[in-house]
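Entry:
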Amino acid sequence: MAAGTIRYWAAAKAAAGLAEEPYAEATLADALSAARTRHPGELERVLLRCSFLVDGDPVGTRAHETVRLAEGGTVEVLPPFAGG
């Protein structure tokens, strides 16, 4: 199991009620599941529209179960932004 930081941006930050929090999970899927449990409601809906960076690399269409998280890593939660 890895430990690192999840950073929320824009609508995800508003829905979570904070800018960042720690994770202690091995995969992106598990970290997002834990975040949904901690912040039920709006964050669950926002995450459906988000893209993710793990340690600066886009996750893209990879299955979240296959994205391993590193010790001391960072997950960026990026909702769609207007204006490009």
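The chain is about 30% helix and 25% strand.
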